[in-house]
Design brief:
- By secondary structure, this protein is α/β, with parallel strands linked by helices.
- The chain is 44% helix and 21% strand.
- The chain has helices spanning 3-7, 48-55, 82-85, 103-114, 120-133, 150-161, 180-197, 208-214, 232-236, 241-248, 250-277, 282-286; strands at 10-19, 22-32, 37-42, 63-68, 71-72, 88-91, 168-172, 200-204, 217-222, 225-230.
Length: 287
Amino acid sequence: MSEEDTEYPIVVEGLRNAFGPAVVHDNLSLKVRKGEILGVVGGSGTGKSVLMRSIIGLQYPSAGEIDVLGRSITDAAPDEVIGVRSRWGVLFQGGALFSTLTVGENVEVPLKQFYPELGDQFRKEIAQFKVQLSGLPLEDAAKYPSELSGGMRKRAGLARALALDPELLFLDEPTAGLDPIGAAAFDALTRELKETLGLTVFLITHDLDTLYEICDRVAVLADRQVIAVGTIPELLAMDHPWIQEYFNGPRGRAAKDSQLRARAQTHDQRLRGLEQNGPVQEGKAQE
């Protein structure tokens, strides 16, 4: 594996996706850095989900090259990339759970596919651990998707995405349909998982709060390409009309103001802590 493969676990070059005469992507290129949460945004019909499906091999492009973790996805036969498929996890919109299986059994599906030699009890214990890792209580492993709320189904889908201890995590609109508290909790969980498990996260979203709170960079899809990739301040410095309308519109300004208030509150809390505890003495700091 080259140094670039290590630095960029996802590399897309010259991608073209078309459905009949409708061209969704044309000469699209994108590199995702290792260990980052990359937010992917764009207007309706710009092909955000199509891009993700192309990267994970569910959509075969008409042109271009996609390398994931140093392996070609576009040039290899399906059985040749089976190994790399076990190194990513995917949370589709709505969770995409099997309705006739319990949450725990849903999590066991990829374990059965990639590690059929695992014993039933060991596989069950792994599934239970992943359910808890997603923020659900252990007893929810025995429930069916129909018995869960929308937010709980998303966490169940996340548990299944984490089943194989992936290096890459793909999230398609994970906070869509959640109330603000539930969305904020899912964002916090995503950031925590990224930091503790060393994940690289490819996150499709239209949630501006999510972009401000947890995304290290944002990729903008427009005009059939990725027109910009960068931090939000870097994007705000660009004069593309869609970027300006998206980030400087009423919702964009509200999300930015919310982040500034949260940072100010955190700063005030730290100051109060210093006032109560006093400065750290030099000798203690060295210890």
